TrEMBL record:
The keyword Metal-binding does not apply. GO terms for cellular component: plasma membrane. Keywords: Membrane, Transmembrane, Transmembrane helix. Pfam families: MFS_1. This is MFS transporter. The lineage of its organism: Bacteria, Bacillati, Cyanobacteriota, Cyanophyceae, Oscillatoriophycideae. It comes from Oscillatoriales cyanobacterium SpSt-418. Its main location: membrane. GO terms for molecular function: transmembrane transporter activity. The chain crosses the membrane at residues 23-42, 62-82, 89-109, 115-136, 148-167, 179-198, 231-252, 272-290, 297-316, 322-347, 359-377, 389-409.
């Protein structure tokens, strides 16, 4: 049976025909995620807050860790409410919560208060909004799902390139507390304004060039439950490994450069900007690859690159700046890749009509990776006295990822691939 098509003139996106107007939703989604990605710029706040509140370096890291945990924990919950509340309402509520977290943090006088305001409140707001731009992009681009999602989440990956220097400049002019307030108000205003554009296409809409199921393409049959599919467990484990390694590398990028390679702090900070660029570039690239190649092959590429980076760092010595830069560009590159692969593969493996709920559940792997990655690397450094030893368990995890991807990231017999071009969308976009 063919799907209902909607090509009438009354279907528009931002006043444009949908095939053209839908492209504007990508930069708008990127802008939302750029605001949310400021959570990765927390390091800019740490030293001023340590001086103002009289707290230790370990204490100043806690709000960031708590924010990551609540961000990941809120994602699956928000996924179930997005279809009920709607994408625009969810975005608006989440934007207000994010801004409120920043604003309340500006009044904090104790680190425990920051755990509540920045960690719990702002982190929860990020988790509420994060999935919406990806849901919107995936529905308007059923023919280019991976590319659209990958481009949209570039905003989150590249956010530190913009928000970190902006935050640093604001702190130098206004000090840390007013800066938190300014960012909170600004983020709220931007997200609320863009929330109005975050709407889904009407039921049955698809691009004009899309071929429907009636043309002889076999329809996909999706698993009825994530938890009864080995694909889910394969994707979850691979995602957890990829994010654990990537987030671990992000957390130690600057210290490793200073301790092992002996570069100065200024160069270490500039290097992080380079790494963030690779983190952003990889997202549309891996999204595009996930559209066109078997998922296990794309996952294997990521893990092989991680192994190369680990080998480089295990053998790195003082003064080998190029080795350090190449290795950490690969670590950040692969993390960005997984943040594009996971949502794209969720769309491919499972019913896209339930994408918000499904990816929320898959995203719990990120939370586990964030929690373990930020805690274990520091512990290894304390036990062995050097960050060199961090790269051995990373390499071991990459090998496990290769095995899991080879065995579990294959389609089950119950899931029928389209017999022609896999990029053609067979189902209507609801």
């Amino acid at each position: 049976m063919g799907t209902t098509t909607y090509h009438e003139a009354n279907v528009t996106v931002l006043g444009q025909p949908p095939e053209q107007g839908r492209w504007f939703l990508i930069p708008l989604g990127m802008m939302i995620l750029l605001c949310l990605g400021s959570v990765y710029s927390w390091s800019i706040f740490r030293t001023p807050l340590e001086n103002e509140l009289g707290i230790s370096a370990t204490q100043s890291l806690l709000p960031y860790t708590v924010a990551l945990v609540f961000y990941a924990a809120t994602m699956p919950i928000a996924g179930f409410y997005i279809p009920r509340l709607g994408t625009r309402v969810t975005t608006a509520i989440g934007g207000v919560v994010v801004g409120l977290g920043y604003i309340l943090s500006s009044f904090a006088t104790q680190v425990e208060v920051l755990l509540l305001t920045y960690g719990l409140i702002a982190g929860t707001g990020v988790g509420m909004v994060y999935g919406v731009p990806m849901v919107v992009a995936s529905r308007w681009f059923p023919d280019k799902k991976g590319l659209a999602v990958g481009l949209t989440i570039v905003g989150f990956g590249l956010s530190p390139l913009i928000t970190a220097p902006l935050t640093n400049q604001l702190i130098s002019v206004y000090t840390v507390r007013p800066t938190l307030r300014i960012l909170g108000i600004t983020f709220t205003a931007i997200i609320l304004a863009i929330a109005l554009t975050m709407k889904l296409p009407p039921k049955g809409w698809h691009p004009r060039q899309t071929v429907t199921a009636s043309t002889g393409i076999a329809a996909k049959v999706y698993p009825r439950s994530l938890f009864k599919s080995r694909l889910f467990y394969g994707l979850w484990i691979c995602y957890a490994i990829g994010t654990l390694i990537g987030l671990s590398a992000i957390g130690i990028s600057s210290p490793v450069g200073q301790e092992i390679i002996r570069i100065n702090p200024t160069m270490a900070a500039r290097s992080v900007s380079l790494f963030a660029l690779f983190n952003g570039i990889s997202r549309p690239l891996f999204g595009w690859l996930s559209d066109r190649f078997k998922p296990q092959y794309v996952a294997l590429l990521s893990y092989v690159l991680i192994l190369i980076a680990c080998i480089l760092m295990v053998n790195a010595q003082t003064g080998q700046v190029a080795t350090y830069l190449i290795a950490f560009c690969l670590f950040w590159f692969c993390l960005g890749g997984w943040l594009a692969m996971a949502p794209t593969l969720t769309l491919r493996f499972f019913n896209p009509d339930q994408y918000a709920q499904n990816y929320g559940i898959v995203f719990t792997a990120y939370g586990i990776g964030a929690l373990i990655g930020t805690l274990v690397t520091g512990r290894i450094r304390d036990l062995f006295g050097s960050y060199n030893y961090v790269f051995y368990p990373m390499a071991f995890l990459a090998v496990i990822g290769i095995v899991v991807a080879s065995v579990l990231l294959k389609r089950e017999n119950s899931t029928v691939e389209p017999v022609l071009n896999e990029n053609l969308h067979e189902e209507s976009c609801n």
